[in-house]
Amino acid sequence: MLKNDLILRAARGEKTERTPVWLMRQAGRILPEYRAVRNSLSGFKELVETPELAAEVTIQPVDILGVDAAIIFSDILVIPEAMGLTYEMVEKKGPHFPKTVESKSDIDSLKVADPDDLSYVYEAIKITKKELDGRVPIIGFAGAPWTIFSYMIEGGGSKTFSKARRFLYTDPAMANQLLEMITSSTIGYLKKQVEAGANMLQIFDSWAGVLPPEHYTQFSLKYIAKICDAITDVPITVFAKGAWWALPEMANINCRTVGLDWNMNPHESRKVLPNKTLQGNLDPCALYGSNESIKEETRNMLEAFGDQPHIANLGHGVYPDTDPQKVKYFVDTVKELSAH
Prior knowledge:
globular; 15 helices; alpha/beta
């Protein structure tokens, strides 16, 4: 039994006694306790693939920051790896794929991921579930197919994602073939996360905002919808960074919650998504301000979402150089200001 199910009730559209709060990228990055674990290992990937340690850093923000949910410590790029395209995590630079997808033969050499190849993630969820003992729900996650596709084509982060976007114009059939494979891989993976004990799921479409609207509908939202249709036993949140123009279309997707980035207007978003719970959307840079300023910005955010179901969060992941005390102050302030 969950002792704190605020976030699940909010996701279902129920009224809650206060606004639940958690942060994207809360597991790690800002916490010295996380860095101590990370520094004892060869690197990020070893931490992701060691269930006991992944569980430990998943629980840290629940203990230290007082958030209302634990998001499993993992990475969206475990999916391309399970499909046959390995990645490296380069310190201070981010992910890098030594080999990228450039042709049909590259796609044909990949496979739809066998969910069992990612057993270390499910094991981490099971350990986390046991250790948490019902204190808060566990959020499982995956990258949206378009975002995963972008990394597989580009080989890493990019300002323009022009290689991935070029593919959509020059060979849409091949793009759809790879997106279908990523989608099937992701559905199997998320179902196993739920079996292992995830109480809700989030789909991260980090690079949604680089696509023109027509392409976003055709090459991203279509595949997100397939994932949401395939998994019906837990609430799903869709977070599509930068895709403010796609919010009306998200009204028709089988997700319970839509995450807003800090450029999206909660009041306007509510008009086009009257039947969804909204999540977000404080600017992560607001946490660099004074406590007085954080309190003011948090109050403004809560008022903008009004009294409809809302899950408080940042409009993107917490930045690594943010003071953990400021993050805790934000969490505490949401609890204080939203309590009825």
